[in-house]
Amino acid sequence: MFVDLRTYTMFPGRLNTFLDLYEREGLPIQKKHLGEPLGYFITETGTLNQVVHIWGYESAADRERRRQAMESDPDWIAYRRKSAEAGNVQHQTNKLLRSASFSPM
Fold first, then answer.
1. Where exactly are the transmembrane stretches of this chain (predicted)?
2. Could you tell me the CA-to-CA distances from 3 to 8, 20, 61, 83, 84 in Å, in that order?
3. Contact criterion met (CB below 8 Å) for 105 and 99
4. Cα-flanking dihedrals φ and ψ of residue 77, to 5°?
5. Backbone phi and psi for residue 17, each to the nearest 5 degrees, phi listed first
6. What percent of the chain has pLDDT above 90?
7. 97 by DSSP, 3-state: which?
8. Range of the domain at 35
9. How distant, in Å, are the alpha carbons of 14, 58, 60, 88, 93 from that of 22?
10. Would residue 20 count as lying in a domain?
11. C-alpha dihedral (40, 81, 35, 67), degrees to nearest 10
């Protein structure tokens, strides 16, 4: 399994605005192209105002194919523009993880 671990840090006070827009407009598009996320979380301790989401793929090539289709989708392009204009995200990190041979996933 190949895992895409994404962490978005919001400006203080902007977390719910981000989540509302994403759930209403972004998530349906991502599900269409990427399938269901493995998880979608909000930090409770440590660095606050963060959203962490995890997507699973069969391989790096599978991830590339699905994300390329999503990035070409006019609805996704419109959502990304609207999300950027809202100015919620302060910082983003992205980690691509490959399962160890003994991992249960």
1. none
2. 16, 25, 12, 24, 25
3. yes
4. -60, -45
5. -60, -45
6. 95
7. strand
8. 15-40+73-90
9. 12, 25, 25, 11, 17
10. yes
11. -110
21 domain residue, yes or no? yes
Alpha-helix runs per DSSP H in 1-105: 15-21, 27-34, 60-72, 74-86
Number of domains in the chain: 1
Q: What type of residue sits at position 78?
A: A
**Residue 54 domain-assigned (yes or no):** no
**Dmax (CA) of the chain:** 43
Both tokens of residue 61?
């090539």
* CA neighbours closer than 13 Å in the CB half-sphere of residue 71: 6
pTM over 0.85: yes
Q: pLDDT tens digit string along 29-76?
A: 999 999 999 999 999 999 999 999 999 999 999 999 999 999 999 999
Instruction: Answer whether residue 34 is part of any domain.
Output: yes
